[in-house]
Amino acid sequence: MPGTETPMTDTEAAMPFHREPRGGLMVALRATLKRDLVLLLRRRSEVLNPLVFFALVITLFPIGISPDPELLATIAPGLLWVAALLAALLSLDSLFRGDYDDGSLEQLLLTPQPLAALGLAKVAVHWLLTGLPLALMAPVLGIMLSLPAGSYGILALSLALGTASLSLIGAIGAALTVGLSRGGVLLSLLVLPLYIPVLIFGAGAVQAAILGDGVAAHLAILGALLAVTLMFAPWAIAASLRISING
Amino acid sequence: MWTFIHKLGSPRWFYAISARLQPWFWAAAALLLLVGSVWGLAFAPADYQQGNSFRIIYVHVPAAFLAQSIFVAMAVAGLIFMVWKIKVADMAAAMMAPLGAAMTFIALFSGAVWGMPTWGTWWMWDARLTSMLILLFLYFGVIALRGAFSSRDSASRAASVLAMVGVINIPIIKYSVDWWYTLHQPATFTVTSRPSMPMEMWLPLLIMLLGFYSFFIALTLMRTRSEILRRESTKRWVRDLAAEEA
Amino acid sequence: MPLRLQARELACERDDRRLFEDLDLDIRAGEIVRVEGPNGSGKTTLLKILSGQLADYRGELFWNGVPMRRVRGDFLASLLYLGHAPGIKAALTPLENLAWYQALADEPGDEAARLAALEGVGLAGFEDLPTGQLSAGQQRRVALARLDLTPRPLWVLDEPFTAIDRDGVAALEARLVAHARSGGCVLVTTHHELRATDELRRIRLGGGGDDARH
Amino acid sequence: MAFASFNEFLAMGGHGPYVWTSWAVTAALLGGIVIHARSERRQLLRNLQRRARRERRLAGGRAPVSHQRGGHVDDT
C-alpha cells in the first residue's frame, strides 16, 4: 500500500457524491433498447436494406436457374433460408460500428452495469429490426418461389427463431471486427461457418413441413441452439468489445 | 503452482526447455512416420472391398484427427493466454493455426482423391468431408482475424476469443452436419467409418497417428521458438543468444 | 475525504513498446491532475488504465485503499469518463443523448435536470435538434453537459477542451476547479495550458527528446 | 509384404494414381512445412545478428545500448 492511510475496508464510506444504485440494470437496459430502436428507426434505410436485399437475391434465382415452379419449389426452403441468412449478415457490420466511431461504445464499457447484458439489448434490437422483418417477409417470397402450401407458417417461425441465433453469433463477429477499418468481408468469413448448424435445422424444418414430417424436433433443436447461444454469446460479445476498444 | 505456471510461461524458460524436448519429438516423428508409411503402404493387407485405394487412410485419418486436435489445442492455448496472460501460449497458438489449416487441407485433398475410386467422383458432400471443409473455413477465419489487427496484442486476444468460440461450435457443427447427411443420403457407404479393421491394418494407422502428433508437437515447439525470437527480439537474452548461435 | 485513487509501480507495454513504468500515483479529493507528455507517451493509455478500461498493465491500482479488482463496480459508479470521441449520437437530439447517459448512470430520467444541464453548457434552444446539425464544439458541449447531469466524484477527461471556443474553455476550466473545491477529483489531459491554482498538479510521462519518434 | 513385385506395389492394384497423389501431396506439404520452419528460424537468427553487429558499430566500443525508457520505438 502506498501512502500512509490505513486501507479502508468499508468502501461504502462517506463519499460526497456516492448514492445507492437506484433503477439498476433494468433502467439501463430499457434506455439502451429505446435508444437503439429510435436510432434505427430514424435511419430507416438500414432497416429496409436487408429486406430489399433479401427480395433481390430471391429474384435472382428463378432468373439464374429456371422459372419452372416445380424445380423452384424443391429448392425454395434452402434458397429462402440462405438468402435470409445473407441478408441478416449484411446488416451486422453496422451493429456496433456507429457506437464505436462516436465513442458511445467506450461509455458502454464504463457503466457499472454488466456489458454482456447491454450488448444483449443491442442484439435484441438488431433482431427485432432485421431478423423478425425477414421472417415476416419470407412467406411472401415463398409464394414467388412456389413454396408448397402448409410450410409458410413454419418458414416464418423457423426464420424468427433462427435469426435470433444468427444475430447473437453474428454480434460476436461484429464485436471482434468493429475496430478494423475494413472488417466487412472478414466478418462474413468469421461468422458464416458458425451459421451452418442454424441453416441446417432451419431449412430442415421447412423441408420437413413440406414432406409432412413432424417439425417439432427441428424447431426444438433451433430453440436449443438459441438457448446455447444465449448462454455463451453475450460473454463472448462483451469480451470481444473490450478487445476491439482497448486491445 | 503460480510460480510454476509463470515460469513455464516465461519465454526464456520455454526457449531453453523446448530446445531439449524438440530433438526427441523430431526423432519420434521421423521414426514413426517412416515405419508407419512402409508398413501402411507395403505390408498392410489390401481391403477386401476397396482394394489398395484404402491405403489413403494412413494419411487421411491422421490428418483429419490432427486438424481437429490442433483447433482444440489452439483454443486451449488461447484460454491460457487470456486467463493467465501467458504470452508463450499465444505464440504457440499463432504457430498452430497454419499447420492446422494445412492438416485440414491434407484431409480434404486425400478425402477427395479417395472419393474417385470409391464413389466415382472427386467430391461428395459426405458428412466428414463437409465438416472438414467447414473446419478449414474456421481456420481461415482465425488466421485472417489475427492478420487484420495492426496491434499484435489486440490480434492475440481477438484470435483467442474466436478460437474459443469456434471450439464450442465444432461439435455442434459436426453433429448437425452428420444429421443433415443422414437425412439427405440415407445409408450410403462412407469411406472413413469402418466397422472393424483387422489388426494389421489398424496398427500402422495408429503408428501414423502418433507420428503426425509427434510432428505437430515438434513443429510447434520449433516455430514457437522462432516466434519468441521474433517477438522478444529487443530483449537482452535474445540478443546474447543470437550472438552465441552465430 | 476518502476519495483516493492510487497506482503502485504501474507499467504498461503495448506491442513491445514501453509506454511507462514504475509509475506511482496518489490522487486525492480536491485535486486536478493534469497528465502531460509528448504524443505517444501513453497519456490516453494511462487515462484508460486509471478509468478501469484497460486491464493490460502491471502494477496495482487502489480505489480508496482497496485493490481495484475488488471494487470495480463501486469505482465505476463514482467515475465519469470523457474520451477523445464525445460519445454523442448524431441522429439523436441532445436531450435523447443525455437521457441515455442518465439511465446508464443509474439516474432517474428527469427531463428538467437534462434541460438545466444543457442550459449550463450554453445549449439552451438546441435541445430538440438532431445533434448532427450542431457544430463540433456544440456536440462536445453536449458531452460536457454530463458533468452536471450525472454527479460523480472522479472525472477522467481526455482532451475535453477540443473544439470548444474561448468562453467555453474558461467556463469549463472554472467548472473543473469548482469540482475539485467541492471535494471532487479531476484527471485530465489537454494541450490547453491550465491556469495554475492550488488544486492543479502535473504528472509528466515519457522522457524528453523522443517527441518526434511516434 | 502385400505385393508380389515392385511394379505391383507402384500400381496399387489399379489405384496407384490415387494412393500416390494423396501420399505425395501429404509428404510435400509436411516437407515444405519443415523447410519453411527451418528457413524462418535461420532468417530470424541472421536478422538478430545483423542488428547486433550494427548496434556494436553504432556504439563504437561503448557498452551496447539496451533499453531506453519512454516512448522509444525500434527503427527496425
TrEMBL record, chain C:
Domain of life according to the entry? Bacteria
In terms of Pfam families, this protein maps to: ABC_tran
InterPro entries xref list: AAA+_ATPase, ABC_transporter-like_ATP-bd, ABC_transptr_haem_export_CcmA, P-loop_NTPase
Domain ABC transporter positions: 5-214
What does the UniProt keyword field contain?
ATP-binding, Cytochrome c-type biogenesis, Membrane, Nucleotide-binding, Translocase, Transport
Q: Which Gene3D superfamilies does the protein's record reference?
A: P-loop containing nucleotide triphosphate hydrolases
Q: Does the keyword ATP-binding apply?
A: yes
Q: What is this protein called?
A: Cytochrome c biogenesis heme-transporting ATPase CcmA
Organism of provenance? Halomonas flagellata
Q: What gene is this protein translated from?
A: ccmA
Automatic annotation (TrEMBL), chain D:
Q: Where is this protein found?
A: Cell inner membrane
Q: Which InterPro entries does the protein's record reference? A: Haem_export_protD_CcmD, Heme_exporter_D
| Record region (Disordered) | 54-76
Pfam assignment, any one = CcmD
- Looking at the UniProt entry, the stretches that span the membrane are 20-37
Where is coiled-coil annotated? none
Q: Which UniProt keywords apply?
A: Cell inner membrane, Cell membrane, Cytochrome c-type biogenesis, Membrane, Transmembrane, Transmembrane helix, Transport
Record has ATP-binding as a keyword: no
Entry membrane topology: Single-pass membrane protein
Give the principal location in a single coarse category. membrane
* Family named by the database record: Belongs to the CcmD/CycX/HelD family.
Its biological purpose: Required for the export of heme to the periplasm for the biogenesis of c-type cytochromes.
Q: What's the protein here called?
A: Heme exporter protein D
Query: Which organism is this entry from?
Result: Halomonas flagellata
